[in-house]
Amino acid sequence: MNLILCFFLTTLGPVPLAHAASVLDLPVPGTMVPLSPNFEPALIKGLTVHKDNPFLFDFIVDPGESKLSQSALKEETDRMVKYFFAALTIPDKDIWVNLSPFEKDRMIPSSLSVTAMGRDLLAQDYMLKQLTASLIYPRKL
Description:
It contains four helices and two strands, in the order αββααα. By secondary structure, the protein is mainly alpha-helical. The protein has two domains: 39-89, no CATH class; 92-141, no CATH class. A hairpin with a 7-residue loop joins strand 1 (43-49) and strand 2 (57-62). The two termini are 27 Å apart.
């Protein structure tokens, strides 16, 4: 009964405005999140492995529609390369996140939690849940 009352009371007030809730600039819970336009981000399209040094890689990066400056593209490339190496070193069974309120003890594996990829996967899962809630909200604004 208390849960139903809480849901009902949250529908009475105005929809809160989105603002930076953390370092990741995520909207606060309950904020309506609109769809964004199509966008092609910078992506790693390939890599070269040197025969004489198998631990040396050259990454082939497509800037997409990002229109980033040279220094910003380098930062984005560095982030993607860190994701690549994290995905290589963390076992496949440990690359998952879970923001379910019913499984608070199963949020992220410890090996993934120490990486930027883990932090960003949690942020994306949060945004996915916010977007889904916004899309199925019965009273569209």
